[in-house]
Design a protein that fits this description.
The protein is built from 8 helices and 10 strands. By secondary structure, it is of the alpha/beta class. The radius of gyration is 17 Å and the shape is globular.
Length: 232
């Protein structure tokens, strides 16, 4: 996926300003930055849900629109499931909606994450509901996975299990993951690249290994040095 000079305006307010970067295959890219910097808007545009005000987003030379949604797996930060549904029912719904969804894989992921599939979602913890969301997304066989704050508000054990699932169930040679996160220090070990956003712009984009080896910093220290603010 390629983004070139992508901007987005809402009424008279510029939310994103001339965003340019490429998502290579087999990469996990983290988008970090303070609230309101444009992370969610950027992911929604990459998913084809929002249309850029200027610039272009392409996937294998095709413009990204809602018509390409079946080639892009998007997980919003909001839980949109019905409380009365079970994971089984959610999986069945996804199987009906997406040709690339694998019921067998969904149940395999659910088993790996130790999620009860026959219990109504309203009876599940926040961590287990997040595991159901992750199973739905990872059970799709797509080239691009977009995850908006997949670890937000979860306890360390839930975050760890979800990160293990990302590594285990994604084709890490052909598929890419772009995720936004506030959990910078905990997610860093699985990231290949990190994008720092501020005020709707990309402040910096760097290879995580280079940050560690050449700068002698971790991603949080790198972010602090560029951002000039305390982060967790």
């Amino acid at each position: 996926m390629k983004l070139h000079e992508v901007s987005f305006q809402y009424k008279s307010t510029t939310i994103l300003n001339k965003i340019t970067f490429t998502v290579p295959p087999g990469q996990i890219i983290g988008i970090i930055g303070e609230n309101g910097c444009g992370k969610t808007t950027l992911l929604r545009m990459m998913a084809g849900i929002l249309v850029p005000s200027a610039g272009a987003i392409t996937l294998e030379e095709q413009p990204v629109t809602r018509r390409l949604a079946n080639q892009i797996a998007y997980q919003p930060d909001i839980d949109l499931f019905y409380d009365s549904h079970t994971a089984q029912k959610v999986f069945t719904f996804y199987d009906e909606q997406f040709d690339d969804f694998s019921l067998e894989k969904a149940y395999e992921i659910a088993a790996f994450l130790e999620v009860p599939t026959k219990v109504k979602l309203k009876k599940l913890s926040k961590g287990n509901r997040a595991r159901v969301k992750m199973a739905c997304v990872l059970a799709r066989e797509t080239r691009i996975y977009l995850l908006d704050e997949p670890f937000s508000g979860l306890d360390p054990l839930a975050r760890e299990s979800l990160m293990k699932a990302l590594i285990r169930f994604i084709d890490n040679e052909n598929s890419s993951i772009v995720l936004s996160t506030h959990e910078v220090s905990e997610v860093e070990p699985i990231l290949d690249q990190v994008i720092l956003m501020k005020d709707g712009r990309i402040r910096a984009m760097e290879n995580v290994e280079l940050i560690r080896d050449e700068r002698g910093e971790d991603a949080v220290q790198w972010m602090k040095s560029l951002y000039g603010k305390q982060v967790q």
